[in-house]
Amino acid sequence: MDDWREAQEVLVMDGGIKVPYSWSAGETGTTYLESLRDDKKFLGTRCPECGIVYHIPRRNCPDCFSECAEWVELGSSGELVTYTITRKHHPQLSPLKGVFGYAVIKLDGADTGFVHLISEFDESQLAKGARVEAVFAGEREGSILDVRYFRPVKAVS
Amino acid sequence: MEPVAIVGVGMTKFERDRVRDTFGDLVFEACTRALDDAGMTIDDIDIVLTGSNDFFDGRTISSMAIMDACGSYDKNVSTVEGDGTFGAAHAVMRVLAGWGTCLYCAHHKGSESVMPLITNAMFDPIYERFLGIDSVTSAALQARAYMDRYGVTEEQCAQVSVKNHGNAFKNPYAQLPLQLTIEDVLASPYVADPIKLLDCCPISDGASAVVIAGAQRAKALDAKPAWVKGIGYNCDAYHLGDRDLSKVDALQAASKTAYAQAGISDPAKEVDLAEVHDTFTYLELMAIEGLGLCRMGEAGEFTAFGNTAQDGRLPVNASGGCISSNPVLVAGLNSIIECALQIRGDAGEHQVDGVKTAVAQGVNGPCGQSQCVWVLGGDE
């Protein structure tokens, strides 16, 4: 039986699964994304019990399980918590051209970080704690990509 | 914990592009080997548990599609979509619940899909997925956070690749034995810095299976049992920005539970061998620390002194680890199987002398969100 298998070229079926989804951002997510789209402002939610300001905002505090009903306006700059520069990326997954990377960024006024893209940088400008600012898209449609990426804040001369 | 033992283990050879075998063929091969190893037939099995991932398999309810290959007809069947350490923990619970003897198998064919597209889909569809982040880029964020916190160097991470790819030469089931130097790893191209190509695991196809039985059944068999001494698992935040990625809180919590069950108070002295999740080199260093085998931030140095080598004081991934074969989900089951073989003295060429207590670790979710720790021993 093994010999028979060795001699045979195994048939391979190419296929794919293409299923459209429509994911609701929910009330909290819609409020957040509308603010990015209409006002270029980041919003977070504050936990009434432990006081943590969450960005990305959410309805409940994952730490103490209280409901987070209070909105907080955040800065559009913040600091790098960690980052990477992508060197080899699947073309379908690249939202930016050229050299770019990913970072966990803690916005001014937020207690938690969030993941976004970084671009327009010199590698020497990237370090834990480095200041970065949001670059907004000209035409915004209510998506996380209304922020095109973050870039290092230029030093004031 | 009431005494429960692993009484049979089976693995396929792990390879890329295993086109001659379907999912079912792989499962059948692993299950047959596990039953043979236990000295059992499928008629001796009461419970069947399977593990797989629908996205990787490209079919929904993928765990049910291989039921014919694991002899499950008319049996008590359950499925776990998660790493093998979690699946096998579920198997132990079913045995403890009194349902009988359990055959648990997990399968994976990474070659048949597109890894970055699938791992991108584990991220939040509103806030993260559009950014194009995947398993490698997210791991790179964690690697940098961990390395920054403790001053860990790329060279220290590279040691893990050199050691584990070298260990794989002595494991006939391993996919990617490589003779490397630290310079080779450092000279390999960055994929997402600080992670380089030779810091990364390969894409693998294969399946594994274990037979788990209660004490009475285990002792009636000719097979050598590896006793389950403790299991712990704990979860951390899903969103990467919600937790400090440099920390191993969930792993420490899981270890604490597993060690308490096993009666271990000083793991650095009492554990003889560990098989940990090293899909990227930095993860082995984090795992060694999180499992309490050395102090936080010192695993790089601990490794440099040769402690974790196959002939070291506390061998880690003597099998070659996930960096040598990474069938997703099966990987954690492989770690358990390797620990069982070492305790039995059946690990062949990579057998380590005098293994009485071994620890296996597995992860689920982005950047080790959820952690599972097993302690196995030679005595009931």
Q: Enumerate how many helices of chain A there are, as a single number.
A: 2
Task: Name the helicity range of chain A.
Answer: 10-25%
Q: How is the biggest beta sheet of chain A arranged?
A: 5 strands, antiparallel
Which strands sit side by side, in order, in the main sheet of chain A?
6-5-4-7-8
Oligomer: heterodimer
Write the element-wise H/E pattern of chain A from the N-terminal end onward.
HHEEEEEEEE
Count of β-strands of chain A:
8
- Overall, the morphology of chain B is globular
> What is the number of beta strands of chain B?
11
Q: What is the domain tally of chain A?
A: 1
Structural class of chain A: alpha+beta
The largest sheet of chain B is: 9 strands, mixed
H/E order of the elements of chain B?
Answer: EHEHHEHEHHHHEEEHEHHEHHHHEE
Query: What is the alpha-carbon Rg of chain B in Å?
Result: 19 Å
CATH class of one domain in chain B: Alpha Beta
Secondary structure class of chain B reads alpha/beta
* Global mean pLDDT of chain A: 93
Q: Largest interface, by Cβ-Cβ below 8 angstroms: which chains and how many residues each? A: A-B, 45 and 39 residues
Task: Give the end-to-end Cα distance of chain A, rounded to a whole number of Å.
Answer: 77 Å
Spans of chain B of 5+ residues with little confidence (pLDDT < 50)?
Answer: none
Tell me, rounded to a whole number, the average pLDDT of chain B: 97
Explain this structure.
The complex is a heterodimer of chains A (157) and B (380). Chain A has 157 residues and is of the alpha+beta class. Chain A has one domain. Chain A has helices spanning 2-6, 26-39, and strands spanning 42-46, 53-54, 70-74, 77-86, 101-107, 114-118, 131-136, 147-152. Chain A has a five-stranded antiparallel beta sheet, with no helix packed on it. In chain A, 32% of the residues are buried. Chain B has 380 residues and is α/β, with parallel strands linked by helices. Chain B has a domain at 4-114 and 203-220: Thiolase/Chalcone synthase (Peroxisomal Thiolase, Chain A, domain 1, 3-Layer(aba) Sandwich), CATH 3.40.47.10. Chain B is built from 15 helices and eleven strands. Chain B has helices spanning 23-38, 54-57, 62-65, 84-96, 115-120, 135-150, 154-167, 182-187, 215-220, 249-262, 267-270, 281-290, 299-304, 321-324, 330-344, and strands at residues 4-11, 47-51, 76-80, 102-109, 190-193, 195-196, 205-214, 226-235, 273-275, 357-364, 370-377. In chain B, the strands form two sheets. Chain B has a nine-stranded mixed beta sheet with strand order 3-2-4-7-1-8-11-10-9. A two-stranded antiparallel sheet of chain B has the order 5-6. In chain B, helix 4 packs across helix 15 (330-344) and helix 7 (154-167) crosses helix 12. The mean pLDDT of chain B is 97. Chains A and B meet through strand 4, strand 5 and strand 6 of A and helix 5, helix 6 and strand 5 of B. Strand 4 of chain A pairs antiparallel with strand 5 of chain B, so a sheet runs across the interface.
